Amino acid sequence: MRKVLVILLATVMLTIPFMAAADEAADLKKKIVMDQKKLMVIENMEFSAEEADKFWPLYEKYQEKLFANSQQYAKLIAAYASVYKTMTDTEALVLVDEYYQVQEEHLAIMKQFSDDLKVALPGQKVFRYLQVENKIAAIARFEIAKRIPMAQ
């Protein structure tokens, strides 16, 4: 069940930026993605009432930042998809630089999130949450990578 939910999450995250749907439909898709991810966190974390009161507001704050970052990544993939068969060396190097910018931003968001979690949760729960987040991200990256053709 979890694998199916995560694959759905990855697929929806990949398709949102490419869809020319109305804002309402895009908002609904985003909500589905966020809810599926939250469900995965709930299934893998055990919070006391006090911990939950501290965790969930931080989670919501940072999920918005992570979602925006994933949108940047999706735009990068779209840029690559538009040129991958005819990509010049210059275009390739621009994409490489943009890729690292997106990755650095992702790492900065996760580092700040981790620092905030250290104040709110015991160390083992911070570590466990980061494991959950990284597993979800790894599955999403794998699903995306399967669909991206190699440069020509």
From TrEMBL:
<keyword id="KW-0732">Signal</keyword>
<protein>
    <submittedName>
        <fullName>Uncharacterized protein</fullName>
    </submittedName>
</protein>
<feature type="signal peptide">
    <location>
        <begin position="1"/>
        <end position="21"/>
    </location>
</feature>
